[in-house]
């Protein structure tokens, strides 16, 4: 009994040691940078896990919030590099004066605040509009997806303002640090890894709180929650805004880690890829979202390096395989394997007592959340 | 109870971080500066989109580059060593180009990389190559206004393609021009240059329209063009959009005689996709055609067909990619090493007879001297040259030699 209680924190500590001690010691700088990238996606996935796994809101357009955060950061970095001049892409796009939208981003505090506040604000407004009208399920999913598509068209069309299809790239300096230096990239990796850990703990706390129970209740029976006197729209809006804030923060971390932000990262396909990653990891558990993002990210890199010609097939096959064999994702598979083992053990010991009544969904949630 | 256990878990994690932060200095990051030359082979990177929207074009360039590597290996390699290509997929996704470029440089430690097609992919790779002081050979015509010390541009810059195209239209007496392009940096920059040229040469721009990359609905745009009654259309559409645009023009009854559409992104490969019936008779501007008559081209076309199939065509970007490998090999031979700075220094002035004719590397801006050629698409899908610049044109990416362009290149 005691041992079981230690398991969650034990796994967390082990993963943390792996991420913060073992990985930086063993991995080459380039691979460590890739891991930092996967973890940026993991933060977005965590937000999706919260909104979709716990709250039942299938958000297919998280790329929008990722992009808002990323562009806010990139605009700041561009302005710092330009040192009072126009950013390079504006020169070749024929822009002669710094657009008003860009001006406040020269201030680092404003830029960093916008990274989180911008996405949260937009998600709140959208959430209030949509959830009050009781738009949910597939309609909500389609709406978020359309938002992602529209956002990309907007970004591409405003070349002088956003860099168009190219996006923003070629950054030199991050708060006085040389971005090309290995030490800066190492520091960034630690920042991303620690942010992922802290956000996971925060999200876990949220799920275990009264609010979290309410959120799950809204997912499983929105009308019943309403009849009990709660306001499901508010619960959903808050959750959606938090997941948007996470995506924004991830975008801002992504920019210095990878060195580019472009519409190709925010559209429908990358947004879907993240949802797929959450499904692969196991959407009912927050840890599943993180695991899924890292596994899918790693799979994408190694498949494409090994089989430059046909890696997309492998990636698709991996998704289909996981979804058919383990609809609850990798973590769900682990949980049911453990249950099966426990059942066999009780059967062998001849214990007449049936295994603990476990609705699988609930069980998974309690174990890992 | 449960919470306190969790707290200790977090504490262990925090402790571990503190320990690495204080004690663990960076791992031995073997910053091996032995650029790909170690051992008895030389690794070179090839980085094109093998999946996604750009794959259809970029795969052909990869094929041409692999052919060049094969030929060079068959004739003894470079500095007595065989070349081993490391092929990566940029996946039509700009951040992926940056990631794979980093991988080629840092992990595979390639001596040089051949890759890219879209300007966006080049812009994404540029910081990677500049920071790592590694070499990229970029094989496609582009919008100019760039000259990175770590990129060699083997395709045309604007004064070797767009300006000759405009000269040709002017010679033909075309005064009213309509601009049609995809919405990204190349068409927008090209059109800026075209407008400046028109203002200085008494030409009139009747309209300027952009559609998103991959756009395929052209009835509205075609109506606009037809109603404006231009003498010619300057087309900077890229990829699939050309298929829809030319089909629509054809069904609107526009003929190449009354309203020629000059394209700068339609080569032999694209003509197959558009359908010869829709585009025959229209002019294009490039530096090389499959029909270009040089001994080197005869060899190139024959070798390409032998390796990849008799139905394959060769095009300008393919030839530029094929050239890139030979030019790098020539520079490495002259430098006596594949070390990047030595190769860069040796490259200036290297002149090689290529399928398009004599190609000389300009040591200053690392572009090529290239002959401009205007061609007309024939009913058999090939392109017949109708005009050329007579001699290779000195590359001028910032258009410094053109007074009318002085306002364009303050970058």
Automatic annotation (TrEMBL), chain A:
<dbReference type="GO" id="GO:0015658">
    <property type="term" value="F:branched-chain amino acid transmembrane transporter activity"/>
</dbReference>
<feature type="transmembrane region" description="Helical">
    <location>
        <begin position="34"/>
        <end position="52"/>
    </location>
</feature>
<keyword id="KW-1133">Transmembrane helix</keyword>
<feature type="transmembrane region" description="Helical">
    <location>
        <begin position="138"/>
        <end position="157"/>
    </location>
</feature>
<feature type="transmembrane region" description="Helical">
    <location>
        <begin position="187"/>
        <end position="203"/>
    </location>
</feature>
<dbReference type="Pfam" id="PF02653">
    <property type="entry name" value="BPD_transp_2"/>
</dbReference>
<feature type="transmembrane region" description="Helical">
    <location>
        <begin position="238"/>
        <end position="262"/>
    </location>
</feature>
<dbReference type="InterPro" id="IPR017778">
    <property type="entry name" value="ABC_transptr_urea_perm_UrtC"/>
</dbReference>
<dbReference type="InterPro" id="IPR001851">
    <property type="entry name" value="ABC_transp_permease"/>
</dbReference>
<dbReference type="InterPro" id="IPR043428">
    <property type="entry name" value="LivM-like"/>
</dbReference>
<keyword id="KW-1003">Cell membrane</keyword>
<dbReference type="GO" id="GO:0005886">
    <property type="term" value="C:plasma membrane"/>
</dbReference>
<keyword id="KW-0472">Membrane</keyword>
<keyword id="KW-0812">Transmembrane</keyword>
<feature type="transmembrane region" description="Helical">
    <location>
        <begin position="274"/>
        <end position="299"/>
    </location>
</feature>
<feature type="transmembrane region" description="Helical">
    <location>
        <begin position="311"/>
        <end position="335"/>
    </location>
</feature>
<feature type="transmembrane region" description="Helical">
    <location>
        <begin position="6"/>
        <end position="27"/>
    </location>
</feature>
<protein>
    <submittedName>
        <fullName>Urea ABC transporter membrane protein</fullName>
    </submittedName>
</protein>
<feature type="transmembrane region" description="Helical">
    <location>
        <begin position="109"/>
        <end position="131"/>
    </location>
</feature>
<feature type="compositionally biased region" description="Basic and acidic residues">
    <location>
        <begin position="360"/>
        <end position="369"/>
    </location>
</feature>
<feature type="region of interest" description="Disordered">
    <location>
        <begin position="344"/>
        <end position="369"/>
    </location>
</feature>
Automatic annotation (TrEMBL), chain B:
<dbReference type="InterPro" id="IPR017777">
    <property type="entry name" value="ABC_urea-bd_UrtA"/>
</dbReference>
<dbReference type="InterPro" id="IPR028082">
    <property type="entry name" value="Peripla_BP_I"/>
</dbReference>
<keyword id="KW-0732">Signal</keyword>
<dbReference type="InterPro" id="IPR000709">
    <property type="entry name" value="Leu_Ile_Val-bd"/>
</dbReference>
<dbReference type="GO" id="GO:0006865">
    <property type="term" value="P:amino acid transport"/>
</dbReference>
<protein>
    <submittedName>
        <fullName>Urea-binding protein</fullName>
    </submittedName>
</protein>
<feature type="signal peptide">
    <location>
        <begin position="1"/>
        <end position="23"/>
    </location>
</feature>
<dbReference type="Pfam" id="PF13433">
    <property type="entry name" value="Peripla_BP_5"/>
</dbReference>
